[in-house]
Design a protein that fits this description.
Helices cover 78% and strands 0% of the residues. The chain starts with a helix and ends with a helix. It is an all-alpha fold and 179 residues long. The radius of gyration is 22 Å and the shape is extended.
């Protein structure tokens, strides 16, 4: 019965939760602390802290940790699957529709208009990441190894058409050797 309750609780969160993991925290807290009373408020705070420290989306980490706390391995698997199931289904339906209507003029126009917007969002994210914290030797008067690695990787991907995975590995090796 606990597995069915876990599935239902996290399926509701997956369907109705929007705005990212932090926005879902109140829904998760209501379901697991107040409604089902699987854990108390202190344990919830501990799971939130653990979810923040663990790589990945906080809501998925929360589902995994609370599922494990309540139902062991199968509980974590069921809670995580229930949380991501609505998103996967919606993505599947949207992609199916896009591939079905890929030759439609409106779809083609919309997708072609989205390309520069997506490129701009990626560029803004890259520019925001270009700071002294990420480039430890940032500055024109210093040894700019991080900036050189970044520039060479960019040139390698876009102009030399080198596999990005190889460039990431090479950049990591150079960074390891230099720093």
């Amino acid at each position: 019965m606990i597995y069915l309750q876990l599935f239902w609780a996290y399926l509701k969160i997956g369907v109705f939760g929007f705005g990212g993991g932090y926005a879902m925290l109140s829904m998760i807290q209501f379901e697991i602390v107040e409604h089902y009373q699987w854990i108390n408020a202190e344990e919830f705070a501990d799971i939130v802290a653990l979810s923040q420290m663990t790589p990945g989306p906080i809501s998925i980490n929360m589902a995994t940790f609370t599922g494990y706390t309540v139902g062991g391995f199968w509980g974590s698997l069921i809670a995580t699957a229930a949380l991501v199931l609505p998103s996967l289904l919606m993505l599947y339906l949207v992609l199916k529709m896009l591939f079905k209507h890929k030759d439609n003029h409106m779809v083609k126009t919309t997708l072609s208009l989205m390309k520069p917007v997506i490129a701009g969002l990626i560029l803004v994210a890259a520019l925001l990441m270009m700071n002294a914290g990420n480039f430890t030797d940032f500055g024109l008067h210093q040894n700019n190894i991080s900036v050189i690695i970044c520039a060479l990787t960019f040139v390698g991907v876009f102009w030399a058409k080198i596999n990005p995975i190889l460039l990431i590995l090479a950049s990591g090796l150079v960074g390891y050797l230099v720093y």
